[in-house]
Specification:
By secondary structure, the protein is α+β, with helices and mostly antiparallel strands. It has four helices and nine strands; from the N terminus they run βββαβββββααβα. It has a six-stranded antiparallel β-sheet. Strands 4-6-7 form a three-stranded antiparallel β-sheet, with no helix packed on it.
Length: about 130
């Protein structure tokens, strides 16, 4: 399973890539493999505010619908519109083309609550 060291993770299976004051967010390779073939992704509107722990969207697969939880608080500044027509990007490239939203980070101290790759690996191995 692919768990890039430069990303941070949540126990709810989201990943975060920090670039300056922006957090790029998606679901982990583990999550997409557990869900199976993803057929629909529901994401928030650009400009909306999200709060840590709140649901910001959902992913529908052939097996189930899974909610997406905000790993940090902030304003949604970009949404991956390509996922509307090609949700399979999440299965194919969870950490690249499968990104979901970009968020302007409201409180950088919240990043300290996220898991390292090793910590996330441990949490999914239990």
């Amino acid at each position: 399973m692919n768990l890039p060291d430069e990303l941070r993770y949540t126990e709810e299976h989201e990943w975060v890539r920090v670039e300056g004051n922006t957090a790029i967010i998606g679901i982990t390779d583990f999550a997409q493999s557990e869900l199976g073939d993803i057929v629909f992704v529901e994401l928030p509107e650009e400009g909306s505010d999200i709060q840590t722990g709140d649901v910001f969207g959902s992913v529908e697969s052939v097996k189930t619908v899974s909610e997406l939880y905000a790993p940090i608080s902030g304003k949604v500044i970009a949404v991956n519109g390509e996922l509307e027509d090609t949700p399979e990007h999440v299965n194919q490239e969870a950490y690249k083309a499968g990104w979901m939203i970009k968020v302007e980070i409201a409180d950088e101290s919240e990043l300290a609550n996220l898991l390292s790759a090793a910590q996330y690996q441990e949490s999914i191995s239990e």
